[in-house]
């Protein structure tokens, strides 16, 4: 076996070109992290996920400290994705009801009165696992139905985890992209509301709300670092995926 290949760094020469603070503020207004976290604190079982220090690894690398935000303990769902899906559903409800001058409490959100005003709503999503489970769990907590589309290679364990939330799971004979296409087509046919973390022309508000929901994780981390006397980290390592979490991190 050959030696382990070292990490390769790619410098972005355009990192600071074309930066427009107004665009960032339009997507992530300064009060969004506070609003998102205030909502998430009301979710059943909410608690901050741990920020775990790795002092031995930091010492080996000659660094002042390394911390990992452990999302495996997020609401027993083992993923940060629920933060985005739940906040997007919440904001969609506010918009549907025309409530823009105040926040909704979780008790109000799950009340019979609000359910009567909204009628029968079904939320839908395509997923590889975690996003769909987060949407399904959130919909169930707020008293809504959910339909989650997965591709044929999705593990049975993930499918069962989604079904345990009470959601209907539809398996598509194709790829993840095929599942995305089919859920949007069926949503138009049946009047479902699609909760996607990917935006396209004419569909931007919900992905924006998903991104805003992720800021709860970031504000938690900031608070946890502050408790250790640290104002902010020098570097943040984050998975890219479709870009929602990376964008939320950069914006925050």
Sequence-ordered SSE layout with sheet pairings:
Elements lengths: L20 H7 L4 H9 L10 E3 L1 H7 L5 E3 L11 H17 L8 H4 L2 H7 L3 E6 L2 H12 L3 E7 L4 H8 L4 E5 L3 H15 L2 E2 L10 H9 L1 H12 L17 H8 L1
Parallel strand pairs: 3-4, 3-6, 4-5
Antiparallel strand pairs: 1-2
Helix pairs in contact: 2-11, 4-7, 4-10, 7-8, 10-12
What's a quick, concise take on this entry?
The strands form 2 sheets. Strands 5-4-3-6 form a 4-stranded parallel beta sheet, with helices on both faces. A two-stranded antiparallel ribbon has the order 1-2. It has a domain at about 110-210: Rossmann fold.
What is the arithmetic mean of pLDDT? 92
Query: Class of the domain at 112-209, according to the CATH hierarchy?
Result: Alpha Beta
SS element count, helices: 12
Which structural class fits the helix and strand makeup? alpha/beta
Number of beta strands: 6
Gyration radius from CA atoms, angstroms: 19 Å
Spatial ordering of strands, largest sheet = 5-4-3-6
Share of helix, binned: 40-55%
| CATH architecture term of the domain at 112-209 | 3-Layer(aba) Sandwich
Please describe the biggest sheet, giving its number of strands, its sense, and whether it closes into a barrel. 4 strands, parallel
What is the H/E string? HHEHEHHHEHEHEHEHHH
Provide the CATH topology of the domain at 112-209: Rossmann fold
Which spans of ≥5 residues are poorly predicted at pLDDT below 50? none
Shape: globular
Q: Alpha-carbon distance between the termini?
A: 42 Å
Strand fraction: 5-15%
Structure description:
The chain has 252 residues and is an alpha/beta fold. The chain has a domain at 112-209: Rossmann fold (3-Layer(aba) Sandwich). Helix content is 46%, strand content 10%. The strands form 2 sheets. The protein has a 4-stranded parallel sheet with strand order 5-4-3-6, with helices on both faces. The protein has a two-stranded antiparallel ribbon with strand order 1-2. It is globular.
């Amino acid at each position: 076996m050959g030696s382990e290949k070292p990490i390769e760094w790619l410098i972005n020469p355009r990192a600071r070109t074309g930066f427009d603070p107004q665009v960032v503020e339009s997507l992530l207004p300064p009060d969004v992290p506070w609003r998102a976290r205030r909502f998430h604190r009301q979710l059943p079982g909410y608690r901050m996920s741990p920020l775990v220090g790795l002092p031995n690894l930091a010492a080996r690398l000659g660094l002042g400290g390394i911390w990992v935000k452990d999302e495996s303990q997020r609401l027993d769902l083992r993923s940060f994705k629920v933060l985005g899906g739940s906040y997007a559903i919440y904001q969609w409800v506010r918009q549907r009801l025309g409530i823009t001058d105040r926040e909704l409490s979780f008790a109000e959100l799950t009340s019979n009165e609000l359910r009567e005003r909204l009628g029968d709503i079904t939320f839908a999503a395509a997923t590889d696992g975690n996003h769909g489970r987060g949407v399904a769990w959130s919909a169930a907590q707020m008293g809504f139905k959910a339909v989650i589309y997965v591709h044929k290679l999705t593990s049975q364990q993930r499918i069962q985890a989604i079904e345990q939330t009470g959601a209907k799971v539809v398996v598509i004979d194709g790829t993840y992209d095929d599942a995305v296409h089919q859920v949007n087509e069926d949503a138009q046919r049946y009047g479902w509301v699609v909760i996607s973390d990917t935006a396209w022309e004419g569909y931007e508000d919900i992905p924006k709300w998903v991104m805003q929901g992720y800021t709860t994780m970031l504000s938690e981390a900031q608070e946890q670092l502050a408790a250790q006397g640290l104002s902010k980290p020098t570097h943040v390592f984050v998975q890219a995926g479709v870009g929602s979490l990376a964008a939320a991190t950069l914006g925050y």
